[in-house]
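S2.1 Query sequence (Rubredoxin)
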Amino acid sequence: MAKWICTVCGYIYDDEEAGTAFEDLADDWVCPTCGVGKEAFEEVA
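Output structure tokens follow.
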């Protein structure tokens, strides 16, 4: 499981907490905080 950060607002998507891998989210999923798409997220090392 991984964590992903929104490069626009800093929202953290946590695969484990959410129960769904980031890669498995729908293509039209958007950040719940600022509304940008998945392409604006980077995996946290």
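DSSP finds one helix and three strands in the chain. The CA atoms of residues 28 and 37 lie 7 Å apart.
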